[in-house]
């Protein structure tokens, strides 16, 4: 059974994050207008682990902040889930490896989420 009292509190948390994140980015150097708009699109389904580790180079909108090679909006067309997981673990091409920083379950979550981006 779903707990009906849980839903409003989750909503509240999401609303808090949506409000708190752009303000935090402003404090961290939000003079870049691209980063402000990046928080509009795609913010709702972006995993927290991606926000914490990946948006500095890939952006919340996944369009990439370091040129086309960092655009992940359609990465599921190019790479399988396993290939994405390998890229996250090993890095390469200017991307740092995350094998020591993230748990396997977090890498799996990211790979599953990204491989659905088509
Ligand atoms: C310091 C910048 C940086 C960070 C942080 C970073 N990446 Fe990357 N990422 C890159 C670059 C640069 C490339 C392109 C590599 C290449 O051309 O071989 C890339 C490539 C990728 C690719 C392959 C895209 C393709 O089409 O080949 C995936 C998937 C990816 N990154 C996922 C992630 C995830 C998930 C995270 C967070 C856990 C992350 N990246 C963090 C810089 C970064």
Could you characterize what this model shows?
The chain is 54% helix and 0% strand. The chain has a domain at 43-116: Orthogonal Bundle (Cytochrome Bc1 Complex, Chain D, domain 2), CATH 1.10.760.10. With 118 residues, the protein is mainly alpha-helical. It has helices at residues 6-27, 33-38, 48-53, 55-58, 75-78, 81-90, 104-115. Bound molecules: heme C. Heme C (HEC) is lined by residues 53-54, 56-58, 66, 69-70, 72, 75, 78, 84, 87-88, 92-96, 98, 110, 114.
What's this, in brief?
The protein is 54% helix and 0% strand. It has a domain at 43-116: Cytochrome c-like domain (Cytochrome Bc1 Complex, Chain D, domain 2).
Task: Describe how the helices and strands are arranged.
Elements: H1 6-27, H2 33-38, H3 48-53, H4 55-58, H5 75-78, H6 81-90, H7 104-115
Keywords: Electron transport, Heme, Iron, Metal-binding, Signal, Transport
Pfam families: Cytochrome_CBB3
GO molecular function, one term: electron transfer activity
Helix/strand/pairing category: mainly alpha
Structure annotation, total helices: 7
CATH superfamily of the domain at 43-116, by name, is Cytochrome c-like domain
| Overall CATH architecture of the domain at 43-116 | Orthogonal Bundle
Roughly how many Å is the radius of gyration?
15 Å
CATH T-level topology of the domain at 43-116:
Cytochrome Bc1 Complex, Chain D, domain 2
| Distinct small molecules | heme C
Please tally the β strands and state the result.
0
Largest sheet: none
- Mean of residue pLDDT values: 80
SSE string, helix = H, strand = E? Answer: HHHHHHH
Helix content: 40-55%
Distance between the termini: 33 Å
Strand content: under 5%
Give unreliable regions as ranges. Answer: 29-42
Q: How would you describe the shape?
A: globular
The CATH class of the domain at 43-116:
Mainly Alpha
InterPro entries: Cyt_c-like_dom, Cyt_c-like_dom_sf, Cyt_C_IC, Cytochrome_c550/c551-like
GO molecular function, one term: heme binding
Domain Cytochrome c: 41-118
Keywords: Electron transport, Heme, Iron, Metal-binding, Signal, Transport
């Amino acid at each position: 059974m779903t707990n009906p009292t849980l839903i409003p509190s989750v909503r509240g948390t999401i609303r808090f994050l949506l409000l708190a994140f752009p303000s935090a980015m402003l404090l961290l150097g939000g003079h870049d207008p691209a980063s402000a708009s990046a928080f509009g699109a795609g913010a709702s389904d972006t995993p927290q682990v991606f926000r914490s580790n990946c948006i500095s180079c890939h952006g919340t909108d996944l369009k990439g902040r370091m040129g086309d090679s960092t655009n992940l909006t359609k990465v599921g067309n190019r790479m399988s889930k396993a290939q994405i997981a390998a890229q996250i673990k090993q890095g390469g091409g200017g991307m740092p490896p995350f094998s020591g920083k993230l748990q396997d379950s977090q890498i799996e979550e990211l790979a599953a989420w990204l491989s659905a981006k088509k």
